[in-house]
């Protein structure tokens, strides 16, 4: 039997690398996407050796239209049709918005939102035509409230959550799935890249591992859920934010973010 093909963006590190490992272990072949080709090659070798997966390495900078076009072309290809797209690549910026270089904020929107929308679009057309497949879009618990000092980041993730929830409903009856994954604090390179220097101020119990996040995500995806928030604490935080006025949640979010950087 042919192995299904999964495309994972941001597969060179963190949650994306774990998605690639877990999907290969479940019997998928992979297309791994990120900028760092050497890390993708190393991951591909491991996945071939440990799981017998066929792995295509597709280096691309998804902040650029050329990079996105490369992945769109792979998603549209009829040879080796893609069964699952995990839109995971993303980064955050931290600080008072007016002090941050605006080009970095726009790059963040280009990666977290524009690339994700384009790749979701490229994947869904062929999937709906075939009557099966799915997309997992990685958001954040930061999506659930305006977040001072991560204003652009949280807004990009609010977009991802709203967009993916809506598409989940549109796809009802097509055989194709869309799920939003909203992790909380997860041990990856994310916080170093975001130049968050005071991570240790967050207590250990709030953190999850990429393995925990991806295990929850794939379980929820298999059940056809619209949303996966991994971890009890993150579920409580999201429910709290959903039930309180923005004036309260933004103050609390600002205190948490300020403490961490
Ligand atoms: N860690 C957390 O606490 C946390 C919490 C909530 C949500 N998330 C979300 O989870 C997702 C994965 O983040 P992570 O925590 O695993 O972070 P990470 O360890 O920093 O990994 C980020 C991945 O994205 C890739 N990437 C970054 N810029 C890219 C670009 N321009 N083009 C293509 N790929 C790019 C990176 O690879 P290259 O550098 O090789 O390109 C890397 O593979 C993100 O969407 C993030 O917002 C993370």
Please give the count of helices.
Answer: 9
| Overall number of structural domains | 1
Q: Helix content range of the residues, please?
A: 40-55%
The counted number of beta strands is 7
Beta-strand fraction estimate: 5-15%
| CA(first)-CA(last) distance | 50 Å
Give the CATH class. Answer: Alpha Beta
* Topology order in helix (H) and strand (E) letters: EHEHEHEHEHEHHEHH
Question: Strands, helices and their partners?
Answer:
Layout: E1 5-9, H1 14-25, E2 29-34, H2 37-51, E3 55-59, H3 65-76, E4 82-87, H4 102-130, E5 133-138, H5 151-170, E6 176-181, H6 190-193, H7 210-222, E7 227-228, H8 232-243, H9 246-260
Parallel strand pairs: 1-2, 1-4, 2-3, 4-5, 5-6, 6-7
The protein binds NADP nicotinamide-adenine-dinucleotide phosphate.
NADP nicotinamide-adenine-dinucleotide phosphate (NAP) is lined by residues 9-16, 34-36, 39, 61-63, 88-92, 111, 138, 140, 183, 185-186, 188-190, 193.
